[in-house]
Amino acid sequence: MKLAPNPFTHAIAAGEKQIGIWSSLANGFAAEVIASAGFDWALLDMEHTPSDYFALLGQLQAFAASNTTAIVRPEWNDPVVVKRLLDLGAQGLLFPMIQSVEEAEKAVAATRYPPHGMRGVSGATRATKFGRITDYNARVEEETTVILQLETGLAISRAEEIAAVDGVSGIFFGPADIAADMGLLGQPLHEDVWALIRPAAQKIIKIGKPVGTLVFDPVFAAQLLNEGFTFVAGGADTSLLARASDALLANIKSNLK
User: Fold this and answer.
1) Number of folded domains in the chain?
2) For the chain, what percent of residues have pLDDT higher than 90?
3) Does the pLDDT value for residue 150 go beyond 90?
4) CA–CA dist 161, 159 (Å, integer)
5) Is 48 a catalytic residue?
6) Among 101, 212, 227, 250, which residue's CB has the most CB atoms within a 10 Å radius?
7) What residue numbers bound the domain in which 234 lies?
């Protein structure tokens, strides 16, 4: 049995626009609801959710039956966590709060087996279909998506150097934390935030590295994709459920006599 190609890894490398969704409900059944919607990628968040390894397993199983690539955001740039997520079969990782070239190199190394990195070896994992995938060790590095998240002004000032680290698949801008770092907490769409992000993104695009982000505005998401961003998520399952619930209640109340 051979390792299946990761369509997201190859799509962003080719500059193909990839539309995504954030999944924060930390539940396999909820993941199944959005898995068949047709998004190119979904981010399974472990940083700001109550998710654990078993919850994540259920989500990965739900997305495995779809054409949507599931990317996992671990709670931190921790090689032990990364090892476990990759063994579970995560096809890509989004590392939060990368601030330097050294942290970027550490993130990449956590996804690589020796002598190229520090990932521990285990043959009978879900990722290898319990030892049945014969070329896993030889090909997993080229198929695994490694995305680094920049969330501060300091990180953005080093964006080109971080993006140039060997093994980095793409750079992700976190507008919510960038806004907070700028003294604009709670204003991720503020024009000053994007006046900082956009030039940095274009510099990275010019050196041939894909860039992405999350925005809770579908029109702005499409605009960013049209500007050269490669992978953009336009919403999250939690927000969609909250807004739809609010709208439903308000609709019923508005029709009461």
Assistant:
1) 1
2) 100
3) yes
4) 6
5) yes
6) 212
7) 7-254
2 in any annotated domain: no
Q: Decide if 138 is inside a domain.
A: yes
Catalytic residue among 10, 48, 116, 190: 48
CATH number, domain containing residue 250: 3.20.20.60
Listed residue (229, 150, 5) closest to 221, CA to CA: 229
Q: Which residue has the tokens 């990368």?
A: 98
pLDDT digits (tens, 9 = 90+) for 87-137: 999 999 999 999 999 999 999 999 999 999 999 999 899 999 999 999 999
Q: 14: which DSSP letter?
A: T
Q: Which two tokens stand for residue 88?
A: 């579970």
Q: How far is CA 233 from CA 20, 43, 145, 212, in A?
A: 4, 8, 16, 8
Q: How much is the pLDDT for 129?
A: 97
The answer to whether residue 50 sits within a structural domain is yes
Structure tokens at 49: 């959710």
Q: What would the pLDDT profile of 178-210 be if each residue is shown by its tens digit?
A: 999 999 999 999 999 999 999 999 999 999 999
Residue tagged 């770092």 (tokens): 181
Q: How far apart are the first and last CA of the chain?
A: 64
Answer yes or no: is pLDDT of 170 > 90: yes
CA–CA distance, 1 with 8 (Å, rounded to integer): 21
Give the pair of three-digit tokens for residue 29: 């059944």
Give the C-alpha separation, 144 to 8, whole Å: 9
Q: Is residue 1, in this structure, part of any structural domain at all?
A: no
